Amino acid sequence: MVVVCHSRKKTEEIAEHFRTFSKYLFKGFHLNVAVFCGGYSIKKDDKLLRDKPHIVVGTLGKIMMLLQRKSFSFLEVTRFVVTHFEELIGSKG
């Protein structure tokens, strides 16, 4: 699953919600949630992607950069969510 957010704050918030919910919903199973935002190092991004996250949460710019660098692909993505779409497109226009 990929979740695209309009801000770093919202990205961190949503990732934390996934981590919290997973503790109660998937007892004994570790849900790997990876966060990608501008300002994070490329080495850290690459390490997170090598760990094959179940859920990727990131800002639009960072997700686009990962796609352009071919560090990330949508080939195995089964769900794609955009949060606060109106704010996301408003920030790019």
How would you characterize this protein structure?
- This protein is of the alpha/beta class.
- The protein has one domain (2-92): Rossmann fold.
- Helices cover 47% and strands 17% of the residues.
- The protein is built from four helices and four strands; from the N terminus they run βαβαβαβα.
- It has helices at 8-25, 42-50, 60-68, 85-92, and strands at 2-5, 33-36, 55-59, 80-82.
- It has a four-stranded parallel sheet with strand order 2-3-1-4, sandwiched between helices.
- The protein is globular.
- The model has no long low-confidence stretch (mean pLDDT 85).
Please sum up the structure shown.
With about 90 residues, the chain is α/β, with parallel strands linked by helices. It contains four helices and four strands.
